[in-house]
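A protein record pairs a chain with a discrete description of its three-dimensional fold. The following entry can be read in just this way.
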Amino acid sequence: MNPTISHVVIYSHGFGVRKSDRGLFTAISTAMPDLESILFDYNVINKKSNTLTAATFEEQTRKLRKTINAARAEHPGAVIDLVCHGQGCVAAALLKPRGIRKVIMLAPPDDMSPETVAKQLDSQTEATIDPAVTTRIPRADGRTTVIEPEYWRELADIDPVKLYNRLARFTALRIMNAKDDEVLGEVAFEGIDPGISLVRLQGGHNFDDEESRKRILYILQKELSI
């Protein structure tokens, strides 16, 4: 146990990436060195074959629960916040953990139907997306993302907006939507609880241009202050 740590931030990353990919979470944790930042991987990474197998949401919620419980045991009494990105927002909403002070969602999806997710992936790759079989998607960095059929079967039962509304009953929820999201496109969040803080910020899905990255870091420094 380390009782000297008073504030922990746990990061829940998005689809088909590693915990540090795109540099978003590492930039946030670096900008706030006084906080205990916990980054972890949902997906199975095979360095030998250079593949990343996308975890099901059942696996993601299990890993997120384990990470939160370990943080509580290691840092008893510490304030815990979650920063989530993309589909990592859905994983947090499915888990709906108790005892979290605040959940901040960056560029979360509002639609997770298999048709919508397949269309989004189709726009990013020339690979054929077939939810009935194992899909292998070549990525620009040379890695291959593997998606098993079980991932697609789970999507049929996921309604992100309902999940976000339910999560907001247990914790403060902030949603930061990217105006120029090249992955999700236009998001509407129809039916979102009016009590949830929802803002639209300039930037792409990863807020990776200089100005939008600088802006999101400034906002998060304020949001994560105690």
